[in-house]
Amino acid sequence: MGRVDYYHDPAAPPANSVVPSVVAFVQNTAAQVLLIKRSDNGRWALPGGGHDAGEFISDTVAREVWEETGIKVEVNELTGIYTDPGHVLQYDDGEVRQQFSMCFRARPVGGDLRTSNETTQVRWVNPTDLDEYDIHPTMQLRIEHAMDRTRAAPYIG
C-alpha cells in the first residue's frame, strides 16, 4: 500500500484516523543508526509502526524493529512524543492518519539484518552520513532528538 506524507501542506486531506505508533532509534556498538527504506513511500526512516491492542508499548517497539529489520532490541527510554496535526499520512485505502508517534531509544541484542514486505533496504548508517539519505523532516527531528542524550526521559514501561 502506498503512502503520501503531507507536512503543513494546505492541500492535505483532513485526517480521518489517529493510530498510536512508535519508531526506534537503534545504535550498534559502532554508534551506527539502524535505518530502513520504506516500501510504501521509498524514504529512509527509523523502523517502527502501529501499536496493537493488548501490547505494552515496549513490545510494540521490539516487534516492529524485528518485523522490519531482523534485529532484536531491548527498549531503553523514551526520547520524544510527536503529535503534530499538520503532519498527515494518506494511504491508498482512503485512510488519512494524523501523526501520533513515540520515539524510543533501543539497543540491539541479536538478529541479522534482513528486509520485509515493509522495507526494501535495511542498513546501519554512520551518523555523519545521514544527510545523504532521503529522510522526511519529521523523521530527521526524531533522529536529532534521540541522538541528543540530554533530552532523554527515563523509560517507564
How would you concisely characterize the structure shown here?
The protein has 157 residues and is an alpha+beta fold. The chain has helices at residues 57-69, 137-147, and strands spanning 3-7, 17-18, 21-26, 33-38, 44-45, 48-50, 71-82, 87-91, 96-98, 101-111, 119-125, 153-154.
Please explain how this structure is put together:
This protein has 157 residues and is α+β, with helices and mostly antiparallel strands. The protein has one domain (3-147): Alpha-Beta Complex (Nucleoside Triphosphate Pyrophosphohydrolase). The protein has helices spanning 57-69, 137-147, and strands at 3-7, 17-18, 21-26, 33-38, 44-45, 48-50, 71-82, 87-91, 96-98, 101-111, 119-125, 153-154. A 5-stranded mixed sheet has the order 6-3-10-7-12, with helices on both faces. A 4-stranded mixed sheet has the order 1-8-9-2, with no helix packed on it. A 3-stranded antiparallel sheet has the order 5-4-11, with no helix packed on it. β4 and β5 (44-45) form a beta hairpin. The radius of gyration is 15 Å and the shape is globular.
Entry keywords:
alpha+beta; five-stranded mixed beta sheet; Nucleoside Triphosphate Pyrophosphohydrolase; 12 strands; 157 residues; 41% strand
